[in-house]
Amino acid sequence: MSLLVAPIRRDLGISDFELSLLQGFxxxxxxxxxxxxxxxxxxxxxxxxxxxxxxxxxxxxxVLCGAAQxxxxxxxxxxxxGAGEAxxxxxAYSLMADSFPPHRLTTALAVYSLGSLxxxxxxxxxxxxxxxxxxxxxxxxxxxxxEVRSWQLxxxxxxxxxxxxxxxxxxxxxPARRQPAGLGDSARNALGEVFxxxxxxxxxxxxxxxxxxxxxxxxxxxxxxxxTYLSRSFAWSAGQIGAxxxxxxxxxxxxxxxxxxxxxxxxxxxxxxxxxxxxxxGTCLLSCPIAVAGVLWNDPYIFLGAFFLVQILVSPIMGIxxxxxxxxxPARLRGRLSxxxxxxxxxxxxxxxxxxxxxxxxxxxxxDAKLGxxxxxxxxxxxxxxxxxxxxxRGSMRNAVSRNISA
Length: 407
What we know:
It is a single chain. The protein has a two-stranded antiparallel sheet. It has a single domain (5-170, 201-406), classed as Up-down Bundle (Growth Hormone, Chain: A), CATH 1.20.1250.20. By secondary structure, it is mainly α. The chain has helices at 5-12, 16-42, 47-65, 71-85, 88-97, 102-134, 150-159, 162-165, 187-200, 202-234, 238-269, 275-296, 300-314, 317-328, 334-350, 353-365, 371-392, 394-406; strands at residues 139-142, 146-149. The longest helix is centred in the N-terminal third of the chain and has 33 residues, at 102-134. A hairpin with a 3-residue loop joins β1 (139-142) and β2. One of its GO terms (cellular component) is membrane. It is a multi-pass membrane protein.
């Protein structure tokens, strides 16, 4: 969607802020809400089937984005994307926590996060190419759907393969649970155990959820508005933007995932049970001046260089934050604790990040051309706060992980 801001705004007659609700709010709120019951299911039923069902729903909803006839049709389809995607991460985190020892878990989850990075990169590359191919045609005629706008074709082409790729989840065995949850547990007892554990380690959960969520807000805001920034500031085409961001973003993300995963796993193996918060408080703080300089320098290649460095420093955030939580959580509670974290992070991070940028542009600067200032302001505010919160949570993470590993 971030490659298609201009044609969607033109055809639907909406503002940056209204479009940001499609990027973040419609997706994030229902991702967050659906994630809570799915976390309960993950702790009790087949995680492979849960993933398959989620993939099928969100890819079908992506195709339906291409069939939308107005703003609210597109809004509802984005809700379907969020609801389907909510199934993936709690189930995947639980599967990997049962498949890898603690000193290898962060690298495993960092590799898992590469799926998102490669997916985003391919969406930029393929989306950019498709936009370039159909740019000369305002409408395209498809079987069954009839006449669709050129930007709708991008959603259809990106979504269709997922309807078949979801079957790949059945190519591996589901590992045995290390601490299986009881099927007979009542909902009240299950919730009581979860919230009792959260109260026991309250400072860890507060600092973990708040610190990583605020950082996600900045990362998401940059990722989703970067194509529009390049288009508005430098008049780059969709094909040019897709190629550069796809290559630069994917390369930076791959380097960052492996570096961060290896560094943290080595520290965990040596007894550094706060390694996730310690490393990320530093990388989050370092990314702030890089991102601000990149968008204010007014040079597209300086921006791409900054984007590359920021991807190395903070793009592994999903895998790193998930690994920290898995190490601090008992196996029988991982699905539910993961879903609560994802509720907070998706709702306030991914859900709000794009809208904060759009709100700065529409209501503070009141100028579409000032999008770069909005991105700089978001990083300048969010990253130092996130770094401080993560630093303050280091001691509580050491206690939580040490007690969980020794239990």
